Amino acid sequence: MCLTIPAKVLSVENSVAGSSVADITVEGSGGVRKIQAVELPGLKAGDWVLCAYDVAIRRISQTDAGEILALLEPKGHIDVSRLDREFLELLKSHAAGGLSKENIIRLLKTEDPLELETLFAEANTVRQAHLKDFFCIHGIVEFSNHCVRDCFYCGLRKGSADVRRYRMTPDEIAETAGDAVNRRGYKLIVLQSGDDFYYTDDMLADIIVRIKKICRVFVFMSVGERSLECYVRMKAAGASGALMRFETSNRALYDSIHPGQLLDKRLELLKGIKKLGYYLASGFLIGLPGQTEEAIAEDIITMKELGANMVSVGPFIPCQSTPLAGHPAGSAQMALKVTAVSRLFMPKAKIPVTTALETIESEEGRRLGLSSGANSLMFNLTPEKYRGHYRIYPDKYHGKEEIWENYGLFKEALSYRMLEKKMFEEFEK
Ligand code: SAM
Description:
SH3 type barrels; five-stranded mixed barrel; 2 domains
C-alpha cells in the first residue's frame, strides 16, 4: 500500500458530535492547508495524522511521525544563486518538452555537490507535483531460483554450482501471497523467479487464478523471457503487471554478458507485453563493464520508448562464482542520479528504490532514493527458509520494514477504498 508524509494538526475548526467528518488545519510537507479528517474522533491541535488526497485518515504518535519524517523528508534549502545558469536552465528543460540525450549525459556526469543536491531536490519536487506524498509499499515473492540462462552478473545463472536450488509449490506461493495480503495488508505483489520452465504456462496462470481467488491484490509477474503466448495467458488469468529489465540497451555490451540471448528478442518481447495492456516495469543495470554515461542515457531513453510505467534500475553488485565476480559494484551515486533523471524524464512513473541500492547504502540508500525522485519500496516476502537461497548477489538488505508496514499497509475502510480505487485507475486502464 502507501505511506504518506505525516502532518501536524494546527487546529480543529468544527467537529460535529455524531459526524465522522471534521474540518481541520494541518502543517505538512506542502505547508499549511485546510483539509478534512474522517473517522478520527477526538482529534485536537498538536496531534499528528497521515493524509491521503487532502483527507486525514489516520492518527499517528509524535514519535512515529518523527521517525517517518526522518525517513522521508528531503534536505532543506538550496542556495541556487551559487549555481551555474546553464546548469539551472538545463535542469528546468525537463518541464519544457523533456530532456535531450545531451542534457541527460550532462546530468549523469556531474560530480559537483551543489549540482547534485539541486538535481535530487528538483526530482523530489517533480515527484511531489505529480504523485503527491504517497510512498507505495509493494512485496516480492521469489518463488524459484532455478534458471536456464547464464547471465554473467547473476548469482542464479545456471553455471553457478554452489546455489541451493528451490522451487515453491503453487500451494506455497498462493499461501505466501494470501498471508501478505490478507494479514499484512499488501496490495501489489511481484512473483519473481529465474527463467524456470518447470512452471508451465498453465501452472503460472493457475497460480495467479488461485491467488486472486483468495485475496484482492494486483499481481505482477517477473518470470523472464517466456513466449508472448505465456504473457497472454497470465494476463487472462488476472496478472496486472510484468517486470522484466532489458539490462542494457547497448548491443555489444548486452551480447558480451548474455551468452545465447539476443537484445532484440528481449526488446520485442517487452514491446509485445506492453501491447497486451500490462503495466510494464523495466529498466537496466548500472555499473556493467565498460558502461558509459552515454550508454546509460540511451538506457533511460529506451525505458521511455518502451512505455515503461515502472522504472526498475539498480546498481550491479558482484557475486562470487560468476564471471563478473571481480568487477566493482555500480556506484550508489550513479543510481541516485539515474533515479533523479528518470523522474525528470518520466514524471509519472513509479520508481522503486531497488534492493541493490539498499544493499550498498542500507537505510540511508532508502532515504536518499526516496528524496531523489523514487516513490516506492519493494519488500521481500519470500519465506525465510528460501530467502537466503535467492542469491542474485550477496548480503541483500532488509530493515525497518516494521515502521513501514505499520503505517504504510493500513487497512482501514476509507483509506483502503481510496487507495484501491487509485490503484485500479493506475494498473487496469
Ligand atoms: N528471470 C527474470 C528476468 O530475467 O527478468 C527475473 C529474475 S532476475 C534474477 C531479476 C533481476 O536481477 C535481473 O533483471 C537483474 O537485473 C538483477 N540482477 C541479477 N544479478 C544481479 C547482480 N549481480 N547485481 C544486481 N542486480 C542483479
